[in-house]
Specification:
InterPro entries: DUF805
Region (Disordered): 171-231
Transmembrane segments: 29-53, 59-81, 93-112
Shape: rod-shaped
Protein name: DUF805 domain-containing protein
Oligomer: single chain
Number of strands: 0
Number of helices: 6
Radius of gyration: 59 Å
Keywords: Membrane, Transmembrane, Transmembrane helix
């Protein structure tokens, strides 16, 4: 909730800088209307005192003072009324309802008493919770801008990065050596006559050795009965 001093300070700042594009909460609006009422009362007091001088200069000064104070208070009231409509997410043109006698004034009073939209709307951040989290205190300045959206260039680069296929390294496969057909293998060489002549003596020696073993076998068998008889 905005204090009276803070509301008057902020409202005066809005009026001096013609800042009608933001939002004003209910407490800020009604506290400032109270400040306008006090200022108007003070101005009327001065006007009445000057007018009581009963001179031509007094009439001129009181009329000029009343004109200036009325114009300033009306201007400030319009600025705050538009900002209050913005807090309801409504355009400032709705202030023209005041031109409708009685019904328009009642409708505007109801709108000014209603709570504003929560969070950020098209006219700016929430004047009570500028950070949008529902817990940040009001800092008295309603000029907080929303977070800047991503630029089209950055969005396009991110999209292209996500859509780009991953290049795979080619797998090198070594060619396998072709199998040599059996028909291409050269046949084993036939033995030459010289090699055959060298093998003949070996065969004769083996045959003679076999005959000798065959002759010794009967003699050993004949000696076996003699050995048994002696025992």
């Amino acid at each position: 909730m905005v204090s009276f001093a803070q509301a008057v300070k902020d409202g005066t700042h809005y009026c001096l800088h013609f800042d009608y594009k933001g939002r004003s909460c209910r407490s800020e609006f009604w506290w400032f209307q109270l400040g306008i009422f006090l200022f108007t009362t003070f101005s009327l007091t001065i006007v009445a005192f000057v007018d009581a001088l009963d001179t031509d200069l007094g009439y001129l000064a009181s009329s000029l003072l009343w004109l200036v104070s009325s114009a300033f208070t009306q201007y400030c009231t319009i600025i705050l009324c538009i900002r209050r409509l913005h807090d309801r997410n409504m355009r400032g043109w709705w202030y023209l309802l005041i031109l409708i006698p009685l019904l328009g004034i009642i409708a505007l009073l109801v709108l000014w008493c209603l709570k504003g939209t929560t969070g950020y709307n098209r006219f700016g951040p929430d004047p009570i919770y500028p950070n949008g989290n529902g817990f940040a205190p009001f800092n008295g300045v309603n000029n907080m801008a929303p977070a800047s959206p991503a630029t089209p260039a950055s969005s396009a680069s991110m999209a292209s990065a996500n859509a780009a296929p991953v290049a795979e390294a080619p797998v090198s496969v070594a060619p396998s050596s072709p199998a040599t057909p059996a028909s291409l293998t050269p046949a084993s060489e036939e033995p030459t006559p010289a090699a055959l002549e060298q093998d003949i003596p070996n065969d004769q020696a083996q045959s003679a050795q076999s005959a000798q073993i065959a002759q010794e076998a009967p003699e050993q068998n004949a000696q076996l009965p003699d050995a048994n008889t002696k025992q």
